[in-house]
Design a protein that fits this description.
It contains 7 helices and no strands. By secondary structure, it is mostly helical. The N terminus is likely disordered. InterPro entries: SecY/SEC61-alpha, SecY_dom_sf. Belongs to the SecY/SEC61-alpha family. This is Protein translocase subunit SecY.
Length: 219
C-alpha cells in the first residue's frame, strides 16, 4: 500500500510539472501570436495575480480559526475548522476570494492611464481619447475583476476539494493551492516579459511616425 501511495504521489507531481511547463509554453505562444498581429502594448489592468487566493486562504483558514480560538473557545474554533470544509464553508471561501478581487491591489487607475495615453499620443482601437477612453478602461477593469474573481474562486475551491480527495485516497495532500499560485506567478511573469519586449518595439514605431510627420511638415 505504501509503495502504491508513493507511485501515485510521484505521478501527480510529474503531472503538475508537465502542467507548469505547458503553462510557460502557452504564454510564449500567445505572446508570439500577438506580436505577429501588429504593433500593440499589453496593458495589464489587474496586476494582483493570485494575491486573492493567498490572502483569502490565509484569512479564511488561518486567521478566522485563530481569532475564534483566542477570543472564543477551542470547541468553537474546532467546529469552525470542520464547517469551513463543508459545502457551505467552501462556498464562503470562494466568495471571500471573489470579493478580494475588488480590492485595489495593484490595479491601474483608469483616469491616470487615459491621461498617459494622451501624453504618449496612443489610444485604444475604436475608442475616442479622453473621457471615453477612461470609461472604457473602467468597464474593462470591472469585467476583469468580476470574471477573474469568479475564475479564481472556482480554482481555489476545486483545489481544496482535490486536496481533500488526495488526503482520503493517498493519505497526503499535494498542496494544489500552492501549485496554482506558482503557475499563476509564471503566467504573470510571462506577461511582464512580453510587455518589456513590446515596449521598445512600440516606441520605435512611434519615433518613426513622428519623423515621418516632421518630414512632411518641412515640405
Amino acid at each position: 500500500m505504501g509503495g502504491g501511495e508513493c507511485v501515485s504521489s510521484r505521478a501527480a507531481v510529474h503531472a503538475w510539472q508537465d502542467l507548469f511547463a505547458q503553462a510557460r509554453l502557452l504564454a510564449k505562444k500567445r505572446g508570439g501570436e500577438r506580436s505577429q498581429g501588429g504593433a500593440y502594448f499589453p496593458l495589464q489592468l489587474n496586476s494582483s495575480g493570485m494575491m486573492s487566493i493567498v490572502l483569502g486562504g490565509a484569512a479564511y483558514f488561518g486567521f478566522l480559526p485563530k481569532l475564534l480560538e483566542m477570543y472564543g473557545s477551542p470547541e468553537a474554533a474546532a467546529w469552525l475548522s470542520r464547517a469551513q470544509f463543508s459545502a457551505v464553508g467552501l462556498a464562503g471561501y470562494g466568495l471571500t476570494i471573489a470579493a478580494l478581487e475588488f480590492l485595489p491591489l495593484g490595479g491601474v487607475n483608469p483616469k491616470e492611464m487615459a491621461e498617459y495615453f494622451n501624453t504618449m499620443n496612443v489610444g485604444l482601437r475604436g475608442v475616442v481619447p479622453g473621457e471615453p477612453t477612461e470609461q472604457e478602461l473602467q468597464t474593462k477593469l470591472l469585467q476583469c475583476k468580476f470574471w477573474g474573481g469568479a475564475a479564481l474562486a472556482s480554482l481555489a475551491v476545486t483545489a481544496q476539494l482535490y486536496d481533500a480527495a488526495c488526503l482520503r485516497v493517498l493519505g497526503t495532500s499535494l498542496a494544489t493551492t500552492s501549485l496554482l499560485i506558482i503557475v499563476g506567478a509564471v503566467l504573470q511573469t510571462a506577461r511582464q516579459v512580453e510587455g518589456l519586449l513590446e515596449g521598445p518595439k512600440l516606441q520605435r514605431k512611434l519615433d518613426q511616425e513622428r519623423r515621418a510627420i516632421e518630414s512632411l511638415s518641412l515640405l
